[in-house]
Design brief:
Belongs to the multicopper oxidase family. InterPro entries: Cu-oxidase-like_N, Cu-oxidase_2nd, Cu-oxidase_C, Cu-oxidase_fam, Cupredoxin. This is Laccase. Pfam families: Cu-oxidase (PF00394), Cu-oxidase_2 (PF07731), Cu-oxidase_3 (PF07732). There is one protein chain. The protein is mostly beta strands and 629 residues long. The protein has eight helices and 31 strands. Strand 12 and strand 13 form a beta hairpin. The two termini are 25 Å apart. The protein has two domains: 203 residues, Sandwich (Immunoglobulin-like), CATH 2.60.40.420; 248 residues, Sandwich (Immunoglobulin-like). The C terminus is likely disordered. The strands form seven sheets. It has a six-stranded mixed beta sheet with strand order 8-7-10-15-12-13. The chain is globular and about 65 Å long. The structure holds CU-O-CU linkage (C2O). CU-O-CU linkage binds next to strand 3 and strand 30.
Length: 629
Amino acid sequence: MTSMDCFEKQSIVVNSELTPTIEVTRGQVLEVTVFNELPTDWPQVTEGITVHWHGLDMRGAEFYDGVAYLHQCPITPGTNFTYRFTVDETPGTYWWHGHAGVERVDGFYGPLIIRPNGTEALAYDEERTLLVSDNFHGEANAMTFGLNRPFDATKQTNASGGWVWVDLPQSVLFNNRGMFADCGMGPYGNAKPIACKPAAQWVPPGRSEAQPWAAPTNKGCARYNLTVEAGKTYRLRVINTGSLAYQTLCFEGHNLTIVAADGYPTKPLVVSCLDINLGQRYDVLLKANQAPGNYWLTARPQFRPGSAAGYGVLRYSGANASALPASPAPQPDTLAPWTLAQLNQVRLSADLLGASANRSLAAHLGPNGLSPPGAAARVLLLNNTQPLLSSGQLRWALNNVATYKTPSCQPTLNQIKAQPQYLDQHARVSAEKYVNYDMLQTGNSSEPMVYMADSATPQAEPVAGQQFVTVGGGDVIDVIIQNMPANANGGDYRPGVGNNRTAMEQHPFHFHGHHFWVLGHGTGRWNASAAAGYNLLDPSFRDSYTVFKDGWIAIRFRADNPGLWNLHCHIDYHLFMGQKVYFLEEAGLISQPPPDFPACPATCTYNFAAWAPGTVKQMFGSSGYPARR
Ligand code: C2O
């Protein structure tokens, strides 16, 4: 039991600790043995767990990337498995997390810090890691049950058995500390409080809304304090470890200097608040240069009105340790997210990177030093929609394929190696169907603008399956992720149901196996002329990046890292609903899996179909649905 936000719930702990940190020096072999001691009767863990190393290229260690049923079968309760690979990555801030189902939402993650094997290039006095996370009171797996149920726009209630969204988080935590349903801190200051929407105040049936879980007097919980000494400079390693919310983080009265993004050094950039999306990391310098005292630390989930916000305290040592800041509590609902222009100021830094560039970055070096490799001959356009499938399930799809089914319990990578025809049986984007900029710009393209599936024509109807992109040969690949209305690409079948679903939202896309150059982003529809505005000099080099509502991003990477790499939205519930595509890279060079990999269970039921209440009852002994309003 944990009571991180004063509400008691079950969380996954590691060595009796929540979110423990792994530290490794570059060049060392990292060896992590995972003993799955989770109970077998807990819904989250019946299928087992895996560990993914978020942000690591996993060069030469592709089988240890840790996506269940893609690279390995999960580690089932009562068994163990050892991840073992050499860490040759740019020193910086990364993280590890579960990647079998949604166990990450139950707390199965932690920071992964890579230390330089020489001296640290940055100057600072001390460092702290700051995990920012939205927090739900429901058990993660139970929250997904509702996502698998059929969508019927006319019957979206729990009683009708229809699709149920997870709604808003109940709190925002700093390093696992926060207060349930903090929306506006009215009682502590003069500002008028902002009301949380009821979903943010939700407690499961049978639990008291008031005592003891919701009381700030609960001894089991406390606000997070970041304690600093006046005059010192702190390196904060900020990681958004939540499952849903893009956060804006502010320290009252203090600016932050961004010095690294997703592990890689950036040109120092001073900001008043830090925007950080799921999966992203920013290293920032915080100077304790104000009058000693207590200052507000706030995190505001953006694009989710009515969500709980996070309140903590930046405390100078010596300040009254039991007092909240004297100033009125900030009302973070009034903070705007960064604009694209602000985001564009985050640039990779050649000076700070120095000799610490890892092999893959070295391979990316262009004629201008750190510029991206030029002359991408191939461009892949991924249209992102939220279709309603003919099965009645609501999914997220890229080019009309929602990738969420696993046809057997064997890891996909093993199957591809064993039977190359496997790919032909699944949705696939093959190299010939790419287009190049020249063709687009000269109007010579006879190809349609939508590329998908394993046929000459675009996949007209949205389907569930597995979608692969085959790349390799060290080719420079551009990927455009284009946000489109929910029902675009013919995604809504049933007459009168959902055909007005034109909504869009932001998605934090994460790529396994690579950092990528963010060449550009924009609003509306991408077209080939956008390439003229790309930053080919010093763009951001990231592994997790936001595709905003009504927007697109263009990213570039070199296909020289053998493996099967997942490109997906880092909102856990969107990933669950199929928002991913697999890049099969340098297939011929992928090594054999090490011999000690986990045995696969005889049956694997993770997210295979709509889970009817009867199935859930049979599997878990109860109907298990969170009763949401
Ligand atoms: Cu951080 Cu595929 O994940």
